[in-house]
Amino acid sequence: MEPKGYYQRAGLPHCDIPGAPVHVTFRAGDSVPLEVIRGWQYELQHRPQAESARVLRRRVDKYLDKGVGSCPLRLESSARLVETALLHFNREKYDLHAWVVMPNHVHVLLTPAEGHPLYRTVQSWKSFTSRRFGGQGQLWQPDFFDRQIRSEHHMARTMMYIEFQPSEDRTLCECGAV
């Protein structure tokens, strides 16, 4: 399987480059209602595309941190299941640098290994955890957000962002050496 490089799927930009660190966020199916996102998109439609994408990403992040939806990862046992999935192929298919499991979403900072496309990795985490949760309903949103890490400074900022997610809502956080 070949990585896709830079591409778009369902209107979201993605970066799939082996050896390039990336910050991934995936979220519960009911964490941000579609009508909320559509409202924001309508409001931002006349702004330049890059600005609109940046504002939308910030709004989604802020909304996620409110803990909206059923919050299936609020229980420690559920969060541990996600952590197990993240750790399973660490140092084999990717190098895991940091992660946090929030009540309704997950942040992961990783570097994909050669021959292991990012989209397949995220798909395997979501598939494994969905099956273990009983496969009832849609546990995860179909896609995920990712952002390529562009410098050591960006890497450090991203690790701090993950590590210092709101502690009262955080279920699990681990930070490894970069």
Layout of helices and strands, plus pairs?
Elements: E1 5-9, E2 12-16, E3 22-27, H1 34-44, H2 49-64, H3 76-88, E4 94-101, E5 105-112, H4 118-132, E6 145-148, H5 152-163, E7 172-175
Antiparallel strand pairs: 1-2, 3-5, 3-6, 4-5, 4-7
Helix pairs in contact: 1-2, 3-4
Describe the model:
With 178 residues, the chain is of the alpha+beta class. It has five helices and seven strands; from the N terminus they run βββαααββαβαβ. The strands form two sheets. It has a five-stranded antiparallel sheet, sandwiched between helices. A two-stranded antiparallel ribbon has the order 1-2. The two termini are 26 Å apart.
Summary tags:
two-stranded antiparallel ribbon, 22% strand
Distance between the termini: 26 Å
Shape label: globular
Strand order of the largest sheet: 6-3-5-4-7
Task: Summarize the amount of helix as a percent range.
Answer: 25-40%
User: What's the total helix number?
Assistant: 5
Secondary structure tally: strands: 7
Estimated radius of gyration: 16 Å
Q: Per DSSP, what share of the residues sits in E-state strands of 2 or more residues?
A: 15-25%
Compute the average pLDDT.
86
User: What is the makeup of the main sheet?
Assistant: 5 strands, antiparallel
Low-pLDDT segments: none
SSE pattern, N- to C-terminal: EEEHHHEEHEHE
What structural class is derived from the secondary structure elements? alpha+beta
